[in-house]
Design a protein that fits this description.
homodimer; Quinone Oxidoreductase, Chain A, domain 1; Rossmann fold; 7-stranded mixed beta sheet; 10 helices; oxidoreductase (chains A, B); EC 1.-.-.- (chains A, B); ADH_N_2 (chains A, B); NADP-dependent oxidoreductase (chains A, B); oxidoreductase activity (chains A, B)
């Protein structure tokens, strides 16, 4: 714990892809907790695609940013929080946070589970993948799955969870040959392709010549039209995000032939994970035993040092990570 | 019952809008039923949008067409079918049909219900509307509804059923000022517009300034994009058909911003009524008491004379009908 606290502020709105000069690191003394609060020294920060959207207006300029964070209570003036406890909170993008007890969630103690997992496969990222498969797609054993943005945090968790839930073939799309190789060699995918090499419809037809039952779409754009064509009867599309569109405001909307939706009785459904926080305990029950046994691995790209949080965020937006990207206190 | 039977054959495939010269009326003697079959003299024929699709390949050329039909058993050589019984079968587009008992469904006797209703609000058309609202949209009391192709068979049944199911505002889109007036004056719609007069999004914003919860889409095209924009959180789109695209093979696919699907947690779902035939008894239980009390009216355009069946079909494709279009034996 240093004597100086660092906070990141956004200083300008991006047009298109964000850049580092739209952020500023502000120094201040480490704050003192008031009565009823506690001081948390942050240990892990999550940077997420939705932060890009917040940059357009959800983040105030010249004010501390928010984000999912894990930290340790280092000074407490409330009986509800003990020094040494590990808590989850949303005052991200800063080295220290003063929190009220109702602002934090205690991280459960699951022996053998690394702390970072509570921001990756056991955190919002894992919960998104779990809800997408179980509540929205309602994946059944033996069904074949296609995932776009497959090498990211949600994509890797989706592939691994689908395998543990008894999926048939699991096929992923990602943005480089290296990440496609990661998916099939490390992350349990049966097939993967680099969508930049050919039309997505052609690549998907090659990887899944008889079609798929479920498409978990983290990307939007061309992937959706291609997947609609490849879906079997009663197929489902789960729309998780629109990362391909955040940085290209002039990009055309996605297009597909809606006759397919009727003739194949398809369902296309979007969701926000905040409406499914009640699934958190179910996710622990499902995933923790598999993490302990080694059947489940948390795919993570960890960047060391809070001062690299903007770099980590831009790397994530460029697709430079495999698995969930996290920043760890040095 | 005449001594001559008439059958309609398709003689050529359409490119774009079909024409009468792609059909031919064939004369033959009235057939004799073989043992195990019965002769049915047809009374009502349904012509439907899906027939347009069958013209592209589903209907064999120079062979009798198929369709939903009601007729009376006039000669029986099977103990399973009694002379005088009214039956539903699928040997449409002909004055007489020889049927096996397993090919027909007996029409239940609901006193006070007109026979034609079994091809309109109690038939496949009504079942489509009922399933769209109850099983796919899962409409709740007080929710506001937007319907495209609102003046057609499915559209009118959807509006009337929604009202009886406790919907809030019911708003319809149709292709002429006359049909819009029909919807609000006769068919129980709260508001209706002619979609040819302005961009659908503008017309819908005017008719439903605070948005809608459910969109039952019989049309596709621009309506879908407009409705996606107008849907409230957790809104549902039920895709019933694609009539706007059958006759314009070069029409672009529908387009909308899929970020809306995520951010508003929307669901877009297509279905085929053939997968929901088990809802038929539930439809009778729901609709027959309302038909008897007068709370439900079957909207129908009835064309008299089998020789006008092609005319009726083309009229339906041009949107010239209000309610379900039926042909009645002279």
């Amino acid at each position: 714990m240093t004597e100086t606290a660092l906070t990141v502020h956004q200083t300008a709105r991006p047009t298109g892809f964000p850049s580092a000069d739209q952020f500023r690191f502000a120094e201040s003394p480490v704050p003192e907790p008031d009565p009823g609060t506690a001081l948390v020294a942050n240990l892990y920060w999550s940077v997420d695609p939705y932060h890009r959207e917040l940059m357009d207006g959800g983040f105030a300029l010249h004010a501390p940013l928010e984000g999912r964070t894990l930290g340790r209570v280092v000074a407490s003036r409330t009986p509800s929080l003990a020094e040494g406890e590990i808590v989850f909170h949303r005052q991200g993008w800063r080295t220290h946070a003063v929190v009220r007890p109702e602002e934090v969630r205690r991280i459960p103690h699951h022996p053998g589970v690394p702390l970072s997992a509570y921001l990756s496969v056991l955190g919002g990222t894992g919960l998104t993948a779990y809800v997408a498969l179980t509540r929205i797609a309602r994946l059944r054993r033996g069904e074949d799955l296609f995932v776009s943005g497959a090498a990211g945090g949600v994509g890797t968790a989706t592939g691994r969870f689908a395998r543990l839930l008894g999926a048939g073939r699991v096929i992923g799309s990602t943005g480089s040959a290296e990440k496609a190789a990661y998916l099939t060699r490390k992350a349990g995918y049966d097939a993967a392709f680099d969508y930049r090499t050919a039309p997505v419809a052609d690549l998907l037809a090659r990887a899944a010549p008889t079609g798929v039952d479920v498409f978990v779409d983290n990307v939007g754009g061309d992937h959706l039209g291609a997947a609609i064509g490849a879906l079997r009867e009663r197929g489902r599309v789960v729309r998780v995000g629109t990362i391909s569109q955040y940085n290209t405001p002039d990009a055309p909307p996605v297009r597909f032939d809606h006759a397919d939706v009727v003739e194949k009785s398809l369902r296309v459904e979007g969701f926000l994970v905040k409406d499914h926080l009640d699934a958190q305990e179910e996710l622990y029950d499902f995933a923790v035993p598999h993490l302990r046994s080694g059947a489940l691995v948390a795919d993570e790209t960890v960047i060391d040092g809070f001062e690299r949080i903007v770099e980590a965020f831009l790397l994530m937006l460029r697709g430079g990570n495999t698995g969930k990207i996290l920043v760890r206190a040095a």
